[in-house]
Amino acid sequence: ALKMAASTVSLLPIMVLFFIAQRYFIEGITQGALKE
């Protein structure tokens, strides 16, 4: 159980970063499409 918790805690910031990057990426694409 401890190993599972440790791996979850270490993966959490990576997941958060991924979601934030994905959101900014989609926003950038939509803004770029609107400009052209």
Q: Major sheet: size, sense and barrel closure?
A: none
Overall shape: it is rod-shaped
**DSSP strand tally:** 0
Strand content: under 5%
Helix content: over 70%
| Overall number of domains | 1
Low-pLDDT stretches are: none
**Helix-and-strand structural type:** mainly alpha
Determine the number of helices (DSSP H or I, runs of at least 4 residues): 1
Along the chain, the helix and strand elements come as: H
Using only C-alpha atoms, the radius of gyration works out to 16 Å
First CA to last CA: what distance? 52 Å
Organism: candidate division WOR-3 bacterium
Keywords: Membrane, Transmembrane, Transmembrane helix
GO cellular component, one term: membrane
Subcellular location: Membrane
How are the secondary structure elements laid out?
Blueprint: H1 2-35
Keywords: Membrane, Transmembrane, Transmembrane helix
Transmembrane segments: 6-26
Organism: candidate division WOR-3 bacterium
In short:
By secondary structure, this protein is mostly helical. It has 1 helix and no strands.
Q: Care to describe what's here?
A:
- The protein has 36 residues and is an all-alpha fold.
- The protein has one domain.
- The chain has one helix and no strands.
- The longest helix is centred in the middle third of the chain and has 34 residues.
- It is rod-shaped and about 50 Å long.
